[in-house]
Specification:
The chain has 455 residues and is of the alpha+beta class. It is 40% helix and 16% strand.
Length: 455
């Protein structure tokens, strides 16, 4: 998008507090101020860096959400540029994400949440949009921290930043990378198989956690590990649910074979049926006490922008960004490491463990699971280094940045496992919440990287 599109506006945004943080950016509760004294509370998702792919993903997220209409899907108001960064302006619902609410919660309330999210997933995947075709959108990161509930029981599915969909104006093209949170991933996703039923699996894991509390079990694309995983999830759930039909239904959502799982539409219908047979409390009755309590205990995460007033440099109508696929104004982000380049393949065979073999006149091309995983994790370290550049300058920050570079090299060499990386990323996110890195955090995280590199 050229600088010619930047036009003066009268809108500004007062950033009140950080309400979310992810790999691509930070979400603020903000007060949008417009002409004539207009004031509105909004959620402002600001891009963490001017990384070209991050920007393309942000714009794709805005376009996708602009096409979808459902009460449980966050609505987009605008795509703007403020404070030198691109941002998405979204509707704001006062409340909290499910990961900060007290658990276990009543099964009745949890089933209402699952029904709402499942309906949203069905709309995103199967409901026709402007061109009469469905988006076939896969969220790919359904989990408690991406589901928001307000004190009146309103449920909202958040963070479509890693979603995949079919629409003409999309800038980031599909590539063979693993995205999401391993603890909620369906087994086939570890082999880079993306299906609608993968979101159903993640929602079932979320339901178990809501009813039983966090269940820490290994997750991989291996049948034996999967069987132990399901057993570890279902045992506490069966004790809490005390309903054989509900237990069997959840077990079907966790099936090894994605074709054995119900669709999101069927999940929503079943959740409402089971909910009707259980009785009190309703989600609204439970949330009216639980959500304000969680909000009172929440400690807002300050950063360098909290409390500032940012002028809007650009106001783009999100609807106007839906351009034709052949529009030269759309610069699609080229695939990065870990995917096939512009090689003309005569034929290809998808292998069971994520390998892809293509025969061409100039020879054979093979991309195995290990090389794809190594490239994906290397990209992860690069993206963390980009986010670290936004932290306050300091010697600890610079030391950790050097360690992240070594981590990327270790990942490229195949020395970093998925679970090791996931554990490190969780600690990294926690350390970066206040916008600075302490000496102790830098040494601890750097040490963890060195351990991974030596393994």
């Amino acid at each position: 998008m050229s600088d010619d599109s930047l036009v003066p506006t009268t809108r500004s945004y007062h950033l009140a507090e950080v309400i979310g943080r992810g790999g691509f950016g930070t979400v603020y509760r903000a007060e949008m101020r417009g002409a004539g004294g207009f004031v509105k509370s909004v959620a402002l998702k600001m891009l963490a860096t001017e990384n070209r792919e991050f920007l393309a993903r942000l714009r794709d997220e805005a376009r996708m959400l602009g096409l979808l209409r459902h009460r449980a899907i966050v609505q987009v108001d605008d795509l703007v540029r403020v404070g030198g960064r691109w941002a998405v302006v979204m509707e704001y619902h006062e409340g909290v994400s499910l990961d900060v609410l007290k658990r276990p919660m009543p099964l009745s309330a949890a089933l209402e949440i699952v029904a709402e999210v499942a309906e949203a997933l069905d709309v995103a995947y199967d409901r026709p949009v402007r061109d009469g075709k469905p988006l076939r959108l896969l969220h790919r990161d359904v989990k408690p921290s991406n589901i928001h509930v307000s004190s009146d029981g309103t449920v909202t599915l958040l963070d479509f930043g890693v979603a995949r969909a079919d629409f003409a104006a999309r800038e980031v093209q599909s590539r063979a990378v693993l995205v999401g949170t391993p603890a909620y991933m369906a087994p086939e996703r570890f082999h880079l198989v993306e299906r609608h039923e993968g979101d159903v699996f993640a929602l079932a894991v979320t339901l178990v956690e809501l009813v039983c509390g966090p269940v820490d079990v290994p997750a991989r694309g291996d049948a034996t590990v999967h069987a132990r995983r399901v057993e570890s999830l279902m045992q506490p759930f069966a004790e809490r649910a005390m309903d054989d039909e509900v237990v069997a239904w959840v077990a079907s959502c966790l099936a090894w074979d994605p074709e054995s799982r119900p669709s999101a539409a069927k999940v929503a219908a079943s959740a409402r049926t089971f909910r009707a047979s259980i009785g009190e409390p309703t989600l609204r009755a439970w949330a009216v006490a639980a959500v304000p309590e969680a909000m009172a205990q929440r400690d807002p995460e300050p950063d360098g922008l909290t409390g500032t007033l940012l002028e809007e440099e650009s106001a783009l109508d999100v609807g106007a960004t839906f351009v034709a696929e052949d529009d030269p104004a759309v610069r699609r982000t080229p695939p990065r490491r870990g995917c096939l380049g512009p090689v003309a393949l005569v034929g290809c065979v998808v292998l069971g463990f994520g390998g892809l073999v293509g025969a061409a006149s100039l020879g054979a091309l093979f991309v195995g699971w290990n090389s794809v995983m190594a490239s994906t994790l290397e990209d992860g370290f690069v993206e963390m280094a980009d986010r670290l550049d936004l932290a306050a300058p300091s010697a600890p920050r610079d030391r950790l940045r050097g360690a992240l570079k070594r981590g990327g090299l270790a990942a490229r060499a195949g020395k970093v496992g998925l679970w090791e990386f996931s554990s490190f990323e969780t600690r990294f996110d926690a350390a970066l919440r206040d916008g600075r890195i302490t000496e102790a955090e830098s040494r601890s995280l750097s040490g963890q990287i060195e351990e991974m590199a030596r393994s």
